[in-house]
Write a structure and sequence with these properties.
3% helix; mainly beta; 196 residues; 1 helix; two-stranded antiparallel sheet
């Protein structure tokens, strides 16, 4: 056990008061769905270690995703745990967030730089990714469509290997576009993002 001790000392002319307050500190156990962060470009996470100006410019962050990583644990994920046709938080626990450091185009619509909640309506052959302003939320329970700023359809394919923990990555397509990859179990979704 870990205890925090708080000492109080008061002096009133010739008398003294001394108080000891011991409080037990409790730390939460390990989260079964740990939080992760992916950033584009990947080297932008290590900018503090770059001293070459050209490399530093190339490592300017463009976007990042923060999400929790639930595990498959032998369950049927898509169609059962994650219901088809219903909004899904794209992870576990708090709302998954995506930050754009510059304006981007998603699904033919401009999305201004900033941080957004990210969820998806999952179907067997395609997903609809939804970007919304209700960042301080817990999944989709209190989602209101009035907070949506953009949505885009994404292709879905079968991944040859089982991905035990939900995983996300950015994959460069060309100098102006990337795909956000979301993989879990044997499913891989690919969302195109165009940088301006």
């Amino acid at each position: 056990m870990i205890y925090r001790f708080i000492f109080y000392f008061f002096s009133f002319s010739d008398s003294c008061v001394f108080s000891l307050n011991a409080q037990e500190l409790e730390f939460a156990g390990l989260d079964v769905s740990p939080m992760d962060l992916v950033q584009y470009p990947g080297m932008s996470r290590f900018r503090n270690f770059i001293d070459n100006e050209e490399e530093l410019a190339a490592a300017t962050p463009k976007m990042r995703v923060v999400h929790s990583r639930p595990q498959v644990k032998g369950r049927t994920i898509f169609g059962e745990l994650v219901k088809y046709g219903e909004p899904w938080r794209l992870g576990a626990n708090e709302t998954t967030t995506i930050t754009f450091f510059d304006d981007v185009m998603i699904g033919g619509r401009e999305v201004k730089k900033g941080t957004y909640g990210l969820m998806a309506v999952v179907n067997e052959n395609e997903w609809e990714f939804v970007f919304h302003k209700n960042v301080a939320s817990w999944g989709t329970a209190n989602h209101n469509d009035e907070h949506n700023v953009a949505s885009a359809m994404a292709s879905v394919s079968t991944h040859p290997e089982t991905i035990e923990a939900l995983s996300m990555a950015f994959e460069k397509q060309d100098d102006n576009s990337v795909h956000l990859l979301v993989a879990w179990d044997n499913t891989l979704a690919r969302l195109p993002i165009v940088m301006q």
